[in-house]
Amino acid sequence: MIGLVELLIMLAVMAFCAYQRMAMKKAMVINGAALAVLLVFVDNSWGFFLSLLVYAVVALFYLLPDLRIDWISRKLYRFMQQVLPPMNETEKTALEAGDVWWEGELFRGKPDWRTLLEYKKPTLTEEEQSFVDNETEELCGMLDDWEVVHKRKDLPPEVWDFIKEKGFLGMIIPKEYGGKGFSALAHSTVVTKLATRCPSAAVTVMVPNSLGPGELLLHYGTQEQKDHYLPRLAAGKEIPCFALTSPVAGSDAGAIPDKGIVCKGEFNGEETLGIRVTWNKRYITLAPVATIVGLAFKLYDPEGLLGNEDKEDYGITCALIPSDHPGVEIGRRHLPMNQAFMNGTTHGKDVFIPMSMLIGGKDYAGQGWRMLMESLAAGRSISLPAMGTAVAQLSYRMTGAYALVREQFKLPIGRFEGVEEAMAQIAGLTYRTEASRVMTAGAVDMGVKPSVVSAIAKYHMTEMGREIMNHAMDVHAGRAIIMGERNYLANGYMNQPIGITVEGANILTRNLMIFGQGAIRCHPYVLREMLAAQLDDEEEGVKRFDSLLFRHIGYGVSNFFRTLGLGLTAAKIADKPVAGETGKYYQQLTRMSSVLALTSDVAMGTLGGDLKRKERLSARLADVLSHLYLCSTVLKYYEDQDRPLSDLPYVKWNMEYGLYKLQEAFYDFYDNFPNKVVGKALRLIAFPYGKSYSKPSDRLERELVKPMMKDCDLRDRITQFAYVGKTEDDVTGRVELAFKKVLAADEVRYKLRKAMKAKELDKNLTNMERIEQAIEKGIINEEEKQLLTDAETARLDVIQVDDYAHEQISGVISD
């Protein structure tokens, strides 16, 4: 018995050191001290001697690195060289592009929540807020989405002029070049607001400010290129596009066949060193109206004209070519999901361009893939997440209003539990999209290029936008499926697949990028181990690998004891940075973060390079990392808003929703893990008492929906960037005004309901007939009658849909 007690004591000491992630030296001292105490004060038995043996072996390898290298590290180093999949330069560049930010803390199993809460609250400057409130508001008022999409297939000329004149195309260009010099948050906010009114206008504005020549010139352009192009881009004198995708290279953009051969040719009447480029590109936004074309192609120098005769293949390179340059062809337009933003093709065959047209000049030959990956890491954090947020905010505001105004069975449809369930999803996810949008754009403004976080934001916020839109369509029912001037949802519904597809298709993003890139970038040791294993100098590689390997083992041991300890105590022992009702959520997320760290290590250790091919497994771990991040954004957003009491149901819903999703992703991963014993063992360690989290309750979801059907501060705050028209004939204005009229008449409507219950009014009459009957019987006065009549008139107007003569819809729709 004493032996077992001794063993348990030593295990407890080791577990404490591992849970605290102590340095090896400190842990050795504490464990040594514990053994000394047992030696002095206890009659030693087998438990002591077994512990002493283990301690001695560990100490031996710790104190004698040469022995450790020869016996262990060198063998594992060679094994790793054999099992690691080959990594080409393109993959290596993609992996190394961008920065690791908060997602690194979440991946490593012990997030420092105080660091998260200390990040500066993202806010708009006074100038940026004014631009949103004035120029953007005015632009929204100029836009008629039905006319843009179904009649013109383009923005009206006056809208184009306004966009150029007011600087919408140069929001990210610094002021010294004539641009706005806005933050990423401001860029995101402008796109969000525009997209609630007209997605085609939002896309038109966001492309030049995202992955376009402006972004590339800012970071990599020569001074001459910046001085020439940036002022012209800021003033709208140049319309840029960027051509990357080719018919045979979509998601696999690194495989583009477009090529340029370094050669000498004639430019401006003189023989010049340049490139003869051939390309065939499609899906290029703004190409049909572009005046300058950013172009990605593979560069080859067979004659060594760039000065290195040993190097022929330079890789992907970016150039900026005027669209009227000889040989440049702008093709015909695409019609993506019937939307009106400009999108089309561009071609060129053996087009000679001087070296001065390379972005960054000759020095950046072959650096195009890195330039694109780094720009994408920032741009993907802003534009498409903003589009998803726009869908959410407009759906929240309009669905809540419509659910109050629209009656069936003599009740607003929002009172029915089935409708309430769909509305709760809209409400909870809208809060989540805004929180994620703000925090992710805020990261860019902190100078971070968050490559993994941007992939999470792009994937989940476009998917949430699609889910929210589906619920909104369901609640609006027939009102949403009839196309016409009154429909504010159908065009957005049509638009959803575009965001899902572009900037890395969502299937690719979830299955390969989020966890595939995240696991390697966020893990404290894996990327460095991989790079060490690829060194040509084996001795140097073994030396580096040895140092990393034993820290990696300590990290794994720590994750095991942390996961087990947090599971057994239901995370009660985890630190929490705040008091109150949200404190427990930090503890639970710490627990799930620890489970992710352990599970990832075991998966990578047992599957090795096969994990890359087990896409469905890695996608589930991608979901785990994503929900940890999204839950973090909600907690951060709540704290940054000074913890308003009215937000608490939304925070609770998001935490319960997120934790449930985390749990399900882990269970699916363990159930499908190829080694069933390992899968079951992991599940037992992570969830020792079985499943721990449930979906949000019906009662909580009811609390989420109530503000949607009230004219309250929370509703205004959650939908603050949803543009709503001001007049009764506006597509969204009529719904908002009817909503307010119905609310204004609520007390009088209550009088009528009481009278009906008392059988003083005929319940079989129409609402208008009942109002007349109520005035005849003296139940309401003339002022109350007017309130009811106004509300009923507005209500009946809102539920109408458009209809057309056959001639109008048999061809091109016209007035």
Largest sheet: 7 strands, mixed
Strand content: 5-15%
Q: Please bin the fraction of helical residues.
A: 55-70%
| Coarse structural class | alpha+beta
Termini separation (Å)? Answer: 93 Å
Q: Number of helix segments? A: 35
- Overall tally of structural domains: 5
Structure description:
With 815 residues, the chain is of the alpha+beta class. The chain folds into five domains: 1-61, no CATH class; 96-121 and 383-512, Butyryl-CoA Dehydrogenase, subunit A, domain 3 (Up-down Bundle); 240-379, Beta Barrel (Butyryl-CoA Dehydrogenase, subunit A, domain 2), CATH 2.40.110; 515-697, no CATH class; 731-799, no CATH class. The chain contains 35 helices and nine strands. Strands 1, 2, 3, 4, 5, 6 and 7 form a seven-stranded mixed sheet that branches. Strand 8 (407-408) and strand 9 (411-412) form a beta hairpin. The longest helix has 31 residues, at 538-568. The chain is flat and about 100 Å long. Pfam families: ACDH_C (PF09317), Acyl-CoA_dh_1 (PF00441), Acyl-CoA_dh_M (PF02770), Acyl-CoA_dh_N (PF02771). Its cofactor is FAD. Keywords: FAD, Flavoprotein, Membrane, Oxidoreductase, Transmembrane, Transmembrane helix. The chain crosses the membrane at residues 46-64.
